[in-house]
Amino acid sequence: MRRLMAGEPVDRAPVNAFASAYTAVQAGVSFEDYYLDPSVALSCQMKAAARHGWDGTPAYAMPGWATWDFGGEIAFPSGRRGGFPYVSRHAAESPQEVEALQVPDPRRAPAARRTLEFAQLAWGDSVAPCITGGSPLFEAVQMVGAERLLRWIRREPATVDLLLDKITDYILRVADAFLDDFGAAECTVFEAFPTESHALVSPAVFERFTLAREVRIHEELIQRGITSWVIHLCGDHSRNLHLWRDAVPLPERPAFSIGAEMDLLEVGSYFGDGCIVGGNVPTTLLQDGSPEEVVAAARRALERGLRHPGGYVLMPACGLPPHARPENVDALVETARTYGRSDH
Amino acid sequence: MSRTQEDIQADLAEAVLEMDEQLAARLAREALDMGLDAYEAIQQGLVPGMERAGELFETQEYFVPELLLCSDAMYAALEVLEPHLSAESAATTRIGVVIGVVEGDTHDIGKNLVAMMLSVAGFEVHDLGRDVPLERFVDRALETDARLICLSTLMTTTLDSMGDLVKLLEERGVRDRFAVLVGGGPVTPAFSRHIGADGYGVNASKAVEAARELCGVPV
Questions:
Q1: What is the pLDDT of residues A98-157, one digit of tens each?
Q2: What are the Cα distances from residue B62, in Å, to A108, A141, B18, B67, B199?
Q3: Record: contact B104-A201, CB cut-off 8 A
Q4: Measured distance between the N- and C-terminal CA atoms of chain B, rounded to whole angstroms
Q5: CA atoms of B115 and A308, how far apart (whole Å)
Q6: What is the DSSP letter of A307?
Q7: Is beta strand A73-75 parallel, antiparallel or unpaired with respect to A86-89?
Q8: pLDDT digits (tens, 9 = 90+) for B123-133
Q9: ipTM of the predicted structure?
Q10: In A, which residues are within 8 Å of B64 by CB distance?
Q11: 3-class DSSP state of A101
Q12: In this structure, what is the dihedral angle of CA atoms B43, B46, B51, B52, given to the nearest 10 degrees?
């Protein structure tokens, strides 16, 4: 994976299972213990990586992290199978409360502190630290509630701007803590954009609310020396791609991981040979399909992805479902080994 | 020249489409003042407006924020009109639908949109909210004599609950009484078939189409 990110030749497509809570389920650990104790999370990640032999490195990000740090609350579902943490109290519910929000100190904030702790522990195992870069709009959805935020986009745009600016300030403040602890050369930025997908908001909303914040995050972090970047475009973003290409500063070799709604080769050709593409294997299949179906889907993704000269990482279309079948994950890894060479 | 009832109905539709809550409520009062039947104002004004919004959503000219605000405008007018519905029109028999987000998941935007669009399409919607235990879907569907159960989830962690509901209906011997319609981020047509659901909606508009088809309502 490191070689591909550095633009060096690789013998096959690496495989990144994009796994988080899946590793907890496999280790028999509750979602709560996994997310609240970074040492447990790291142990689960290392065990799963050893079990499956995937190429991706351990990473840790708590759903709803910015909400928790800005004073909201998170909780864990009590169902028999457990689940991801969810926001049980928003950080703000009115324009006045948004105005009153204070940008937290990441070293004292409950979620960012854990993210830094995970990075510190993983660093001991030579794992590159991963900075969560946003998106600010996705964190805003968590902080005030989805329907409220989506209404405010039209009814209270100034409040949305203020909220996004505070979140962007915080993302950069957390990044600074990572850079102080580990140095820019070691850090990777990971950003996910589920809210900006065309299933939810228009390209105009991306341009009006997200773009300026992304330009700022990218400009500032590139200026601080970060070169490794993974951008996860969750869902259909095809009408936003021109803005990503033409307006957002990108490092020399950005990696774009995409959902099943877009085509690997089209996205790759959009950004040129310098970019890496990844993703595209349907997550539902990894949970409920058979290993044969996973092999077929992974082969289709490899067939498209490997034609992109910048390189391809075999990955699920989004985060690996916590209850994915282990034999399906094995099938994904094995397919990269068997069919992942560009001369195959 | 005085405005006709048709003008007011067209303006109501436009107010919904333009997401103008205050105008929609004012037009609803105007409609009543000029003697327009509340049921007609809803059916010939608000419903076409919301249906047009659904069409624009389908073609990606409107997105979720616009659909939410259109529904706000529609509900603002409904609040004015509903108390004036005649006993006869209020008692019109409608096809019952039970809808909710399955247990363990609290993401409900998609479910809310589908519930609203089903209501506009003339279904009697029993919205159970989010994080709903499977037994409640079945109990409520039996209580209300619904024909359709709609399940939504955004999470893969709760996806399998949809299949569990189909099994629960079978265990309780009532599978044949209800059609099951599923939707949400990770749900696919293949998954829908795999769990034995009767229909799938990729978005709110398609979910309404599928509901109409499953219940034999002309599209």
A1: 999 999 999 999 999 999 999 999 998 889 999 998 899 999 999 999 999 999 999 999
A2: 42, 19, 11, 7, 25
A3: no
A4: 37
A5: 43
A6: T
A7: antiparallel
A8: 999 999 998 99
A9: 0.92
A10: 150, 199-201
A11: coil
A12: 130
Q: Give the span between the Cα atoms of A66 and A167, in whole angstroms.
A: 8
Cα angle A137, A209, A157; round to 5: 100
- The CA–CA distances, whole Å, from B73 to B2, B21, B31, B40 equal 25, 4, 15, 17
3-state SS class at A122: helix
Mutate to test the interface with A, among B18, B21, B61, B63 (most CBs of A within 10 A): B63
Give the A window 212-271 contacts with B, CB below 8 Å.
none
Question: Are A137 and A196 spatial neighbours (Cβ–Cβ below 8 Å)?
Answer: yes
Question: Which residues of chain A have a CB within 8 Å of the CB of B191?
Answer: 284, 288
Do B67 and B107 sit in the same domain of this protein? no
Domains observed in chain A: 2-22+55-61+92-339 (3.20.20.210)
Q: Model-level pTM?
A: 0.91
SS3 B201: strand
How many structural domains are present in chain B?
2
Cα A63 to Cα A69, A97, A131, B92, B150: the distances in Å are 12, 22, 14, 45, 27
Structure tokens at B163: 């299949």
Contacts of B158 in chain A (CB under 8 A): 79, 83
**Are B127 and B153 part of one and the same domain?**
yes
